Amino acid sequence: MDILYPRRCPICGEIVPKKGELICGECKDKLVYIKNPRCKKCGKPLEFYKEEYCRDCKRRRHYFEEGRAVWVYSKEMRSSIYRFKYDNKREYADFYTEELVQVYGNWIKSLQVDAIVPIPLHKKRKRSRGFNQAEVLACGIGRKLNLPVMPEVMVRDKNTVAQKELNDKERQENVKNAFKIPCNEVKLKKVLLVDDIYTTGSTIDAAAKALKSKGIEKVYYICLCTGGVS
Ligand SMILES: [Zn+2]
Ligand SMILES: [Zn+2]
Q1: Which residue of 36, 215, 229, 230 is most buried, as measured by CB atoms within 10 A?
Q2: What is the helix (H) or strand (E) element at residue 197, kind and residue range?
């Protein structure tokens, strides 16, 4: 397979020089992995160990329990995720989920979730993009950790505008009531949400709120990237 379809680096886009690898060594070194100290709620990197929560989590109540992200949303990751989503580079998910499971596999296992649920796209947007990037990630994680992935649990019935164009207040308004749980009786207790980027948490919160309204008790999340130090 490698000969027919040489592996392209998710960062520089060149053919990965080392066989069997998913990224060039140099490119991997450019990525900023989130480490401690991090916010105990949303997982954003913090500047000091004495802080427990980031500025955002201190002033806002979240509907989810806890979440983590693998990388800081640097210019490298920004452009990589952009190509993943809008240039149909689905194979980048192999690298993303490999790293995600490497770093947070044990954390995810410790949560003992009943299912992994990707943040849904509105059906119109999914049709135009061809796939839901969060679903591709969720499936990769589920496969590697042997956990069920249930994209059908939640739908997005409001075709929201892209969050990146909005400020904090507008983001919350934009995703408010955007998610619906079609099934009346959801037999899940703990769920892990998956998305590509976490910024202020409005999307994850709206999804967690919808899930909790149907009796789901604990909602966690995992993302590829989150904003910088706050
Ligand atoms: Zn590279
Ligand atoms: Zn936080």
Answers
A1: 230
A2: strand 190-198
Nearest ligand for residue 22 CA: 1
DSSP 147: -
Residues, beta carbon < 5 Å, ion ligand 2: 39, 41-42, 44, 54, 57
pLDDT in tens, the chain (230 residues): 556 678 999 999 999 999 889 999 999 999 999 999 999 999 999 999 999 999 999 999 999 999 999 999 999 999 999 999 999 999 999 999 999 999 999 999 999 999 999 999 999 999 999 999 999 999 999 999 999 999 999 999 887 777 777 888 888 888 888 999 998 778 899 999 999 999 888 999 999 999 999 999 999 999 999 975 54
Q: How many Å lie between the centroid of ligand 1 and the Cα of residue 68? A: 25
Q: Domains for the chain: give ranges and CATH numbers.
A: 1-30 (no CATH), 32-226 (3.40.50)
The closest of 160, 216, 213 to 192, measured between CA atoms, is 216
Peptide bond into 37 cis (omega under 30): yes
Of all ligands present, the nearest one to the C-alpha of 58 is 2
